[in-house]
Design a protein that fits this description.
Rossmann fold, alpha/beta, 5 strands, 12 helices, globular, 2 domains
C-alpha cells in the first residue's frame, strides 16, 4: 500500500513538474524577446512601409510632380533611417492656387496618416490653427495650449502631427516652433511635423524668397534676427501642391 502511494505521488510530482515547465511565464517571456526585431531591423521595416505608403499616394494624386514627392520623402525618411535623429522631420506644403485649399489640406492629411501608419500608428494629430486663433485667446495662451497638445501627443508615442494654416498663427505663438523644429535641441527628434501654408501669389512655383517675404509680411512684428532662424526651421523643406482633377478630389478628398 505504501509502495503504491509512493508511486502515485511520484507520478503526480513529475506531472506537476512538466506542467510547470510548459506554462512557465518566464519561459514564454524569453521566447517573445527572442523574436522581437532589433532596432535596426525595425527602422528598415518602417522605412519600407513609408516608401510603400508614398508610392500608393503617388498613384492617387497623379498631378503632383516628381520634385514634390522627392521633397516629401527626403524630409520624412531621415528620422526613420537614423538610429538617433538629431532633429525632427519638418515639412511645409504650400498651395498658390486661390480656392484650392481643399487639395492642400487633403494631401497633407494623407501624408501625415501615411507617416503614422508606417509606424503602425493610426492616431496622428491634426490641428486647424485658424480655428485656434478664432477662439479669441491671447497668443501666449494659444502657445501654451498648442505646446500641451504636441507634447502630450508625442510623449504618448505618436510620430506625426499636421498643423493646417500656419499663416493664421500669431507670430508670438509661432515662436513655439523655434524649439519644436530646432536642429539640436528639439524636445522630440524622431517625429514628423507637417505644416500647410496658403500663399496668395500669381506664381505657380514661388521661390524661397517669395515665401519668406510673405512670412515677413504676416509676422511683421518679428525682427529679421528673430524671423530668419524661425523660417530656417519651419520652411526648410517646402513642397508646392498642384491642383488635382475633380475625380481625384471626389474619390480621395470627399470633395
Amino acid at each position: 500500500m505504501d509502495a503504491q502511494f509512493i508511486f502515485i505521488a511520484c507520478i503526480a510530482g513529475v506531472t506537476l513538474l512538466i506542467l510547470a515547465v510548459i506554462f512557465n511565464p518566464f519561459r514564454a517571456q524569453r521566447t517573445v524577446l527572442v523574436v522581437e526585431p532589433s532596432a535596426k531591423l525595425w527602422r528598415q521595416i518602417v522605412l519600407k512601409s513609408l516608401e510603400g505608403e508614398f508610392e500608393t499616394l503617388r498613384g492617387k494624386f497623379a498631378q503632383q510632380d516628381r520634385r514634390f514627392w522627392s521633397i516629401v520623402m527626403a524630409a520624412t525618411k531621415r528620422v526613420v533611417q537614423d538610429e538617433h535623429p538629431v532633429q525632427p522631420a519638418v515639412l511645409m506644403l504650400v498651395s498658390t492656387e486661390v480656392g484650392h485649399s481643399g487639395i492642400l489640406n487633403c494631401l497633407a492629411a494623407h501624408i501625415t496618416d501615411a507617416v503614422g501608419r508606417s509606424h503602425n500608428l493610426t492616431n496622428s494629430l491634426k490641428i486647424d490653427l485658424n480655428s485656434m486663433t478664432l477662439s479669441g485667446k491671447a497668443p501666449d495662451a494659444l502657445k501654451l495650449e498648442l505646446d500641451d497638445l504636441l507634447s502630450n501627443t508625442f510623449g504618448a508615442g505618436n510620430k506625426a502631427a499636421l498643423l493646417y494654416n500656419i499663416q493664421d498663427l500669431p507670430s508670438r505663438t509661432a515662436m513655439l516652433f523655434h524649439s519644436y523644429c530646432d536642429n539640436t535641441n528639439a524636445p522630440f527628434k524622431d517625429i514628423t511635423l507637417t505644416f500647410t501654408f496658403q500663399l496668395n501669389t500669381a506664381a505657380s512655383s514661388p521661390s524661397d524668397e517669395e515665401i519668406e517675404d510673405h512670412f515677413a509680411m504676416i509676422w511683421s512684428d518679428l525682427d529679421k534676427d528673430t524671423l530668419s532662424p524661425l523660417l530656417s526651421r519651419i520652411a526648410n523643406s517646402v513642397a508646392i501642391v498642384k491642383p488635382e482633377t475633380r475625380e481625384t478630389m471626389r474619390i480621395y478628398c470627399n470633395a
